[in-house]
Design brief:
mainly beta; 7-stranded antiparallel β-sheet; Lipoprotein; 2 helices; about 35% strand
Length: about 270
């Protein structure tokens, strides 16, 4: 998942002392400047610690449009001082599932992924079209903040005691806003070389969230033709090439129903 001025050579004024031009004489030539190429999409400004950026647009069936951006920051050891905020986010959200001792003992790396969705125009984004955010909690520990909401989606209306652990709940954008996820990768800090596991996972936006229930209300599983992703552009930084890019499974899928790049980009499902 591209974007003449005419300079006329002045005609000589006819005077009494100038001979009249023959009707067969060729007129003065017109000089045409080469057409300039239309401006391309703006280059995404990425922070120094980023490994991947992406921009794109998604349009709903009611005409509402969201401008999307994504930034993947390089992994850090969960025990590093500059990862303290991310460690607090993951241990608070995943209380009873991941704690500081586990993060340290299993050499977790933490990857922060920032997402933005900016409304273009005045039409409201439909509330029944949540955008699934990658990476999902299918293979990693996940904690979200801001407009990135983790939602407990069950396969059937819940019975007493049914639940999805916080760390395994998928994250969504349900409309415009800014949010982040902290992706916890076991063993990432002790690999040789370290901090390369981020490249084994996919990053982006997808309408194909599995159908389920939030409480007693249906959620996800929407008709993917109700949205259209366009103008998807991924930017790989120089830092990424020193941290595992490209992985063996690296690829991208820029399609009408998704804007996803990275490792293992196959969709999870949907209608």
């Amino acid at each position: 998942m591209t974007f003449a001025a005419v300079a006329l050579v002045p005609l000589l004024l006819l005077t009494a002392c100038q001979p009249e031009k023959s009707p067969l004489e060729s007129p003065s030539p017109t000089v045409m400047e080469a057409p300039s190429a239309p401006p391309g999409p703006p280059v995404q400004a990425l922070p120094p610690d980023s490994v991947l950026g992406m921009t794109g647009t998604v349009t709903a069936d009611n005409g509402a449009e969201l401008a999307l951006t994504l930034v993947v920051h390089a992994s850090k050891a969960a025990t590093a001082p500059d990862a303290a905020t991310g460690s607090a986010v993951i241990t608070d959200w995943c209380a009873g599932e991941l704690d500081a001792n586990t993060l340290a003992g299993q050499a977790y790396g933490l990857v922060q992924v920032d997402y933005t969705a900016t409304l273009v125009g005045s039409k409201t984004w439909p509330p029944d079209l949540p955008l699934l955010l990658f990476p999902t909690a299918q293979d990693v520990g996940l904690a979200s903040s801001g407009a990135a909401h983790q939602i407990e989606v069950l396969a059937a209306p819940p019975s007493p005691g049914d639940y999805v652990p916080h760390c395994q709940q998928f994250a969504f954008l349900t409309g415009p806003g800014d949010g982040s996820t902290i992706v916890a990768l076991a063993g990432d800090a002790s690999d040789n070389p370290p901090f390369t596991r981020w490249a084994d996972f996919a990053y982006g936006f997808d309408i194909n969230s599995p159908a389920g229930f939030v409480g007693s209300k249906p959620f996800g599983g929407v008709d993917s033709s109700r949205v259209s992703f366009t103008n998807c552009v991924a930017t790989i930084t120089a830092l990424a090439s020193t941290l595992g890019y490209p992985s063996n499974s690296w690829g991208q899928e820029f399609a009408p129903d998704r804007c996803v790049v990275g490792g293992s980009t196959q969709p999870l499902g949907g209608p």
